[in-house]
Specification:
Elements: H1 2-42, E1 45-46, H2 49-69, H3 78-86, H4 97-103, H5 110-115, H6 119-130, H7 133-142, H8 148-168, H9 175-198, H10 200-203, E2 209-210
Antiparallel strand pairs: 1-2
Helix pairs in contact: 1-2, 2-7, 6-9, 7-8, 7-9, 8-9
Length: about 220
């Protein structure tokens, strides 16, 4: 029970650190909504409430994921900003790239195999998979031209970009994270296929439709 509470606490901390970037993304989304509506209307299309909600969720998630992964560790925590304003630690810590080169992990499946023998490592392994599921699920749900390789490519490119950036900002870089993230995106595409098979009419609610069909 204590272990489960610890994992929930860690998950909650990650979600809190995603909030600042997610909130900024929400403001951008709402500011651009009139422009997007006019652009679609010029094509005789409209985006319904289901699609708008899914688009908003995807944007919030991507922005939150960027905030969590593309900044130094604990960058968005309250204590970090308090310490930065008090001058007790820098807002952006310096990076020793010689040390970074020594810590980078380029051996495939080494960390994955180790995760099978420890609950914390397994939790992180599972998190790396789940974290990229939305990147494989929502794009084919929202846009046409869905194919599994698109989701794989999305997960691979996004994860490679994250791991490269983390090397540059002094965080850990691990090839196994790329593998797990890519698998997560592929799993997301699998969930999309399952939903489309079980509820094909429901999935159509997430696509743009002709303007008059929303009134008919």
């Amino acid at each position: 029970m204590d272990t489960m509470l610890f994992y929930l606490e860690i998950t909650g901390d990650y979600l809190r650190q995603m909030l600042p970037c997610a909130m900024a993304a929400a403001l951008i989304f709402w500011a651009l909504t009139p422009w997007r509506s006019r652009r679609l209307a010029a094509q005789g299309l409209r985006s319904g409430p289901w699609r708008e909600g899914a688009l908003l969720f995807l944007l919030l998630f991507c922005a939150g994921l960027a905030g969590l992964t593309l900044f130094p560790a604990n960058f968005w925590s309250i204590w970090h900003w308090r310490a930065a304003f008090q001058g007790t630690e820098p807002l952006f810590p310096s990076v020793d790239y010689r040390l970074q080169l020594q810590t980078i992990q380029l051996i495939p499946f080494r960390e994955i195999s180790g995760a099978l023998f420890g609950p914390w490592r397994f939790f992180m392994l599972l998190g790396n998979v789940v974290m990229f599921v939305p990147l494989g699920f929502f794009p084919p749900l929202l846009w046409r031209g869905a194919h599994w390789y698109r989701s794989v490519l999305t997960g691979l490119c996004a994860s490679t970009g994250v791991e490269t950036t983390q090397f540059l900002i002094g965080r850990g870089s691990d090839v196994d994270d790329i593998i797990l993230n890519t698998l997560g995106a592929l799993a997301g595409y699998g969930l999309f296929l399952l939903l489309r098979r079980l509820a094909p009419r429901f999935t159509k609610k997430f696509r743009c439709v002709k303007a008059e069909s929303l009134h008919g």
